[in-house]
Structures are given as structure tokens and as C-alpha cells.
């Protein structure tokens, strides 16, 4: 069955790669969001046949140098639902272990005619470096502290869906929507991509956490910055808790986990002053009852698993746009 390209009348996609949200225009972000609903529909088909042949015969390579559950499986599923061939390269047993460079490895993969390479790497800039020197479309699946663009796109898509249902307006966007991002902002590629994405779409973003975990450039990014959790979430439409990277504690960036929980855990008590229908989000993996209380993560206001479902549709949209353009 053909999938209708409803969104391409609004804007055109011309990029070879998706490296970060920072360089995208609002129109490009909206194009991805507007392309995704048709792929949600594919995943929810009554027939159970969750496939469209938009990437038939194409090769998508998943290349992850860091642990991942959601992003890796989501890209693999997205590629399969587009009928692409998929190849997963396990970095721990690849020739990178023998000292082969990223360029040489990708040149060898390209000799087997790859079309898309999905890369997660601890080096901020790895995806861009490969994109600039290779013909394959490179998708950044998270590079160091830099960006995680598809996470931000699926988050914006999830928020937009809730706002549209709340307002009963199928055209509503994110203009004026208030999003509070809580936790380790300074070391979070998810936070960075979300700040770029949400502010481009007209949302008001507040970041909140211990001073040592807030980026120095916060105010320059045109967002509110506070260390007071209750202040951050008082008017929020969305509260987005970030994973506390426990390894940071060894660097003494916050005094103790107990202290962090007391001041920054998103729980029912913290939400006392927040609007009653505030949406709870988290990119995963969750440290339960550290940055987010279990009762909220699993509660009726939680969009955590919806984020994961939407991730497949967003990644299908991105791969479709990259290879089929408009
Ligand atoms: N949100 C996210 O990137 O999760 P994974 O690390 O499991 O991919």
C-alpha cells in the first residue's frame, strides 16, 4: 500500500544527513513531525502487517559504540518497517578493537553499498566527521555531550500529540507550551537537542538542576534557568526528567544522591503546585525513584512508553526523508 506524502507540500527535505537539531530550520523540524503520523498508522495497522516498501533494497547500518536499548531497537525496527535490509555492527567485536579508524571501517561498509549509517559514539562530532567524508547518509544517534536529534524529534512529536488532543485542535503546535527539563542538563545531549527543538517550535523552556549540572550558556540559549524545582514546574505543561548519570557523582558534581533526590526528584510532592494535567516525560533509561518517582513514571500522566512508540515512527520519517527526499 502506498503511503501518502501529505507533509511534503509544506517544505522540502534536501539534507543528506541528520547530525543535530541546531542546524535544522523550524520548517524542517515540522516536516519530520508532519511526516511521522503516516508511520504511526503503519505500526498500528489492524491487519498486523507493519511494513511499507519505501526503503526496499536499501541498506541501513546500525553502528553503536555505546550501550542503547531504545534508540538501537527503534532504528532497527524503523528500517525493517520500511522494508530496508539492516546490518547491526557490534563495536565491541568489530575491527575497531584492532585499531581500525571510523573512516576505514565506514569505507569498508560502503564498499558493500550502505545507504544509511546510524551512529552512536562517545565522541561529540563523530557523526559529523563521517557525514562530511562519506556518501552514506549519517544519522546521529547520540554523540558525546553534543546532540541526540531523533530523541528530540520524538519528544516534540509526543508533546504535540498531547497538546492537540488537549486542545481538540489537530493543527495545534508548540507555540507557548511550557516545558521544564529537570536534571543534569550540562552533560545531556538529550537536553541540548530538546532545547534547540522546542525553542525552534515556539515552546518556553525552563531548565532546572543543581548549579553544577546546568550549562553556563543556559541564559544565552533563550531559556529560563533555575535551581528551584517547584519554581520550574509551577506553570509547566510538560515536566521532562533526565537520567542522572550516576558516574557524575564520582566527579563530585552534586553532594550526594540523597541530596539530589530531596531537591530534584520529580515526584507527587514536587508536583503539588503544578497544573493537574502536567505531562511527565523521560528519555529512558530511568533510574527509578532517583530522578523520577515510580508512581509518576507508571502513572496516568506519563508519556514514557508513548515516547518509545513514537520513536519508531519518527525514525521511519527521518530515514524516508533522507533517502527519498521529497
Ligand atoms: N533515550 C535513549 O537514547 O535510550 P537508549 O540509550 O536506550 O537508546
Compact summary:
The chain is of the alpha/beta class and 326 residues long. Helices cover 35% and strands 14% of the residues. α3 links the parallel β1 and β2 (85-90).
Walk me through this protein's architecture.
- The protein has 326 residues and is α/β, with parallel strands linked by helices.
- It has 2 domains: 26-147 and 308-323, 3-Layer(aba) Sandwich (Rossmann fold); 149-303, 3-Layer(aba) Sandwich (Rossmann fold).
- The protein is 35% helix and 14% strand.
- It has 11 helices and 9 strands.
- The chain has helices at 26-35, 37-43, 70-81, 102-110, 126-133, 149-167, 189-200, 229-233, 257-264, 294-297, 304-324, and strands spanning 59-64, 85-90, 116-121, 137-143, 178-182, 204-208, 224-226, 238-241, 279-281.
- The longest helix is centred in the C-terminal third of the chain and has 21 residues, at 304-324.
- The site of phosphoric acid mono(formamide)ester has 9 residues, from helix 3.
**In sequence order, what are the helices and strands, one letter per element?**
HHEHEHEHEHEHEEHEHEHH
| Fourth-tier CATH superfamily name of the largest domain | Aspartate/ornithine carbamoyltransferase
Structural class from helices and strands? alpha/beta
Give the helix tally.
11
What is the CATH architecture annotation of the largest domain?
Answer: 3-Layer(aba) Sandwich
| Weakly predicted, low-confidence segments | none
Shape: globular
Strand order within the widest sheet? Answer: 7-6-5-8-9
Mean pLDDT over the full residue set: 94
- Please give the largest β-sheet: 5 strands, parallel
Proportion of residues in β-strands: 5-15%
* Number of self-contained structural domains: 2
The amount of helix comes to 25-40%
Number of strands: 9
**Named CATH topology of the largest domain:** Rossmann fold
- Terminal residue distance: 18 Å
Radius of gyration of CA atoms, rounded to a whole number: 20 Å
CATH class of the largest domain: Alpha Beta
Q: What hetero molecules are bound to the protein chains?
A: phosphoric acid mono(formamide)ester
Amino acid at each position: 500500500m502506498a503511503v501518502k506524502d501529505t507533509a511534503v507540500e509544506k517544505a522540502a527535505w534536501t539534507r543528506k544527513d541528520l547530525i543535530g537539531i541546531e542546524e535544522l530550520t523550524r520548517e524542517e523540524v515540522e516536516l519530520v513531525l508532519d511526516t511521522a503520523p503516516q508511520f504511526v498508522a503503519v505500526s498500528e495497522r489492524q491487519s498486523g502487517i507493519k511494513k511499507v516498501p519505501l526503503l526496499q533494497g536499501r541498506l541501513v547500518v546500525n553502528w553503536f559504540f555505546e550501550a542503547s536499548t531504545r534508540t538501537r531497537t527503534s532504528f532497527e525496527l524503523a528500517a525493517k518497517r520500511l522494508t530496508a535490509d539492516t546490518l547491526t555492527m557490534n563495536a565491541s567485536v568489530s575491527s575497531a578493537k584492532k585499531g581500525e579508524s571510523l573512516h576505514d571501517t565506514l569505507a569498508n561498509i560502503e564498499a558493500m553499498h550502505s545507504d544509511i549509517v546510524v551512529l552512536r559514539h562517545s565522541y561529540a562530532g563523530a557523526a559529523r566527521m563521517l557525514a562530511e567524508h562519506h556518501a552514506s547518509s549519517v544519522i546521529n544517534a547520540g554523540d558525546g555531550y553534543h546532540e541526540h536529534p531523533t530523541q528530540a524529534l520524538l519528544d516534540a512529536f509526543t508533546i504535540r500529540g498531547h497538546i492537540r488532543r488537549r486542545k481538540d485542535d489537530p493543527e495545534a503546535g508548540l507555540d507557548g507550551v511550557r516545558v521544564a527539563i529537570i536534571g543534569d542538563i550540562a552533560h545531556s545531549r538529550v537536553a541540548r537537542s530538546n532545547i534547540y527543538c522546542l525553542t525552534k517550535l515556539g515552546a518556553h523552556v525552563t531548565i532546572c538542576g543543581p548549579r553544577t549540572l546546568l550549562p553556563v550558556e543556559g541564559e544565552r540559549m533563550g531559556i529560563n534557568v533555575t535551581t528551584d524545582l517547584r519554581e520550574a514546574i509551577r506553570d509547566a505543561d510538560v515536566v521532562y526528567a533526565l537520567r542522572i548519570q550516576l558516574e557524575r557523582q564520582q566527579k563530585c558534581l552534586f553532594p550526594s544522591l540523597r541530596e539530589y533526590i530531596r531537591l530534584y526528584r520529580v515526584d507527587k510532592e514536587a508536583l503539588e503546585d503544578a497544573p493537574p494535567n502536567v505531562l511527565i516525560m523521560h528519555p529512558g533509561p530511568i533510574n527509578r525513584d532517583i530522578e523520577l518517582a515510580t508512581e509518576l513514571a507508571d502513572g496516568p500522566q506519563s508519556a514514557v512508553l508513548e515516547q518509545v512508540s513514537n520513536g519508531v515512527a519518527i525514525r521511519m520519517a527521518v530515514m524516508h526523508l533522507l533517502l527519498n527526499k521529497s
